[in-house]
Amino acid sequence: MKIPFNTFERQVARLQPEIDAAIGRVLQRGWFILGPELEKFEAEFAAYIGVPYAVGCNSGTDAIELCFRALGIGPGDEVITSPLTAAFGVFAITAAGATPVFVDIDPLTYNLDPNQIEAAITSRTRAIMPVHLYGQPADMGAILEIAEQYELFVVEDCAQAHGGRYRGQRVGSLSDVAAFSFYPTKNLGAYGDGGMVVTSSPAVAERVRMLRNGGQRSRYVHETVGLNSRLDELQAAILSVKLGHLDTDNARRREIAARYDALLAGGPVETPWVAPDVEPVYHLYVVRTPERDALMAHLAGQGVGTLVHYPTPTHLQGAYQSLGLGPGALPQAEAAAREILSLPLYPELTDDEVAWTAQAVHQFAGVLAR
Ligand SMILES: Cc1ncc(COP(=O)(O)O)c(C=O)c1O
């Protein structure tokens, strides 16, 4: 059996008639930027998340930058975040002019450890950016409490958690302002780049709208240096179709995760731990073993594609050498980065493929024993 880590073929085959109709509609209209498709999708997405405002932009990275710029967070300010994430999300903090301050992860959830946040707060700290990694909502109760005590903003990075819930509430609706990515592999993915800012604040929404469109409120009047970061009409129309499938797709992801949990029990890897007050959406199914590289090679030999999210924590990337954080600075994130492995998980993955993958993981115990 050959099981790709990810594939769009099956998804496109499933959705093609609806997607073709959406694309056809946009082409016929001949309106490609800031038009009715984006307005419609923004309204649908805001309603889905449970907030009054959603503003589309070019990527998750831009969405995060727009969040900080709209809050007035920039040069001289510090933002506390997780080192175990897509580096792009951290680059957005830097792009806004602020400085990322890394706090280690909780090794059970791989999310920002709230118990370590207070020690990282300085007079320059303005915000905390939890990342709902792998689709599991971060410990928002504890994070919001700290933020309130120290008068900090909270910006959720929801790039991996469309539809996830914390204590019954959708991620993105829990903080001052939140960012989503529609990168193609995400739970809600475009067929290109895309992102969204969501908020309950009309002032923040208004500022993001201005900033994403070259700092203009009206045409050719640039009141500040903005971004060129709009979610185009084709992507908005495609995303609108796909939003209609998100809940069933997430339910299937949870079903696959439950199958993996059951099939991998007693095997040579640690399976994901889920906090009691969250409903995860399994953007990724991440197992853990000190023999990660050997397991990855073994699975490749069995036709199973895997990836590591992420092999190098962001504080150890060359891009952040200037922060002066060497190996050992954030031990939990560094240990996780050496031991984690993402197994295939997408709604179209079949039960047979899940069983094959789980069996291949079990065989690895035999390989280790040899
Ligand atoms: C956690 C996280 N944050 C931010 C991003 C950046 O999103 P994008 O690729 O849409 O710019 C991604 C995805 O790559 C991500 O997974």
Describe the overall structure.
Helix content is 40%, strand content 14%. The chain is α/β, with parallel strands linked by helices and 370 residues long. It has two domains: 9-103 and 110-240, Type I PLP-dependent aspartate aminotransferase-like (Major domain) (Aspartate Aminotransferase, domain 2, 3-Layer(aba) Sandwich), CATH 3.40.640.10; 245-369, Aspartate Aminotransferase, domain 1. The strands form four sheets. The chain has a seven-stranded mixed beta sheet with strand order 1-9-8-5-4-2-3, sandwiched between helices. A three-stranded antiparallel beta sheet has the order 7-6-12, with no helix packed on it. Strand 6 and strand 7 (169-170) form a beta hairpin. Helix 2 (36-49) packs parallel to helix 7. The site of pyridoxal-5'-phosphate has 15 residues, from helix 3 and helix 4. Pyridoxal-5'-phosphate is lined by residues 59-61, 85-86, 88-89, 131, 157, 159-160, 181, 183, 193, 195.
Mean pLDDT: 97
Distance between the termini: 24 Å
Q: What is the CATH class of the largest domain?
A: Alpha Beta
As a whole number of angstroms, the C-alpha radius of gyration is 21 Å
Tell me the number of helical segments per DSSP (H or I, 4 or more residues long).
10
Major sheet: order of its strands?
1-9-8-5-4-2-3
Order of H and E elements: HHEHEHEEHEEEEEHEEHEEHHEH
Count of individual beta strands: 14
Bound molecules: pyridoxal-5'-phosphate
CATH superfamily of the largest domain: Type I PLP-dependent aspartate aminotransferase-like (Major domain)
